[in-house]
């Protein structure tokens, strides 16, 4: 249904050349279940029809299908790239070993590789990504677009006790974060993003997660620098914050968020920044990122 809605929306507005469309294959109902050659080639035609387009910008393998040889899956994906039906390939829910194996298969056979990874990753669920998987993505230049970046809404701060979940559709997912560790993360976010900085906790959570794949958690101050710029550049409006940026320089990030150019942090084009305040805020946020590392 989502593909149909997106297809009707972009077609009615004639904006296909101004949007990027990503979709998935692997969890469809038979005969398009799994990642066999037949499933992939059949499912992509259905997606293209529903999306009312002749190509998909990013096509994700959704869930690793260990019942199908990787060679078969990757050859089918490569064919879609070669024919122009897909621009780039992504993997969802792959662990480091399988992602590395897929990369090796592509290198040997000259196939289009997975260029994007979609892991479950947020400030209260970090172990599955940080470590071998993060290192592999950095080494191979694989972009990362986490899902559940706000832990099903838990990191918005709206859910702090079992009573907050009553009648909520997300109760099952959010409830498992109501632990001492999860509440400790919320407390850290509250302290960092309090009234002194006029930034909502959700903004900090989203920005730190968005940058950690590029910088690494140990570089907390640099990550905080970017998070602060993104937050204040739009007045702290969480709906307008650019997140998940991989491979951007600081100048590029400032330009993206503010619509201006910048010679560097605190330089030309960053008129909304007071250098003294920035230094204090960045130091505080950097410490908090390290603090979150310890909490996690």
* Helix share, percent: 40-55%
The whole-angstrom Rg is 21 Å
Mean pLDDT, as a whole number?
75
| N- and C-termini, Cα separation | 37 Å
N-to-C SSE string, H for helix and E for strand: HEHEHEHEHEHHHHHH
What does this protein look like?
With 296 residues, this protein is of the alpha/beta class. The protein is 47% helix and 8% strand. It is built from 11 helices and 5 strands, in the order αβαβαβαβαβαααααα. The protein has helices at 2-13, 37-51, 70-82, 96-109, 132-140, 171-175, 180-192, 201-215, 220-233, 250-258, 275-295; strands at 22-25, 56-62, 86-92, 114-118, 143-144. It has a 5-stranded parallel beta sheet, covered by helices on one side. α2 (37-51) links the parallel β1 and β2. The radius of gyration is 21 Å and the shape is globular. The two termini are 37 Å apart.
């Amino acid at each position: 249904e989502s593909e149909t809605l997106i297809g009707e929306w972009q077609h009615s507005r004639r904006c296909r050349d101004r949007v990027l469309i990503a979709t998935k294959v692997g969890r469809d109902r038979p005969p398009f279940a799994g990642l066999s050659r037949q499933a992939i080639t059949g499912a992509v035609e259905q997606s293209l029809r529903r999306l009312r387009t002749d190509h998909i910008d990013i096509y994700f393998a959704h869930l690793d299908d260990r019942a199908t040889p990787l060679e078969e899956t990757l050859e089918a994906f490569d064919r879609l790239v070669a024919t122009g039906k897909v621009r780039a390939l992504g993997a969802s829910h792959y662990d480091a070993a399988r992602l590395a194996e897929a990369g090796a298969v592509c290198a040997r056979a000259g196939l289009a590789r997975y260029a994007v990874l979609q892991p479950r990753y947020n400030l209260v669920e970090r172990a599955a990504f940080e470590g071998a998987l993060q290192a592999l993505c950095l080494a191979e230049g694989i972009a990362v677009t986490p899902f559940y970046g706000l832990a099903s809404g838990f990191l918005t701060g709206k859910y702090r006790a079992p009573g907050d979940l009553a009648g909520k559709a997300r109760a099952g997912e959010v409830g498992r974060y109501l632990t001492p560790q999860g509440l400790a993360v919320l407390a850290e976010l509250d302290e960092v993003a309090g009234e002194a900085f006029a930034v909502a906790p959700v903004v900090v959570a989203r920005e730190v997660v968005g940058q950690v794949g590029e910088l690494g958690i140990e570089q907390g101050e640099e990550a905080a620098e970017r998070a602060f710029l993104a937050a204040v550049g739009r007045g702290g409006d969480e709906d307008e914050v650019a997140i998940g940026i991989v491979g951007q320089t600081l100048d590029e990030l400032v330009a993206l968020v503010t619509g201006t150019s910048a010679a560097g942090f605190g330089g030309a084009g960053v008129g909304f920044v007071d250098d003294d305040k920035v230094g204090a805020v960045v130091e505080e946020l950097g410490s908090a990122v390290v603090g979150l590392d310890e909490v996690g």
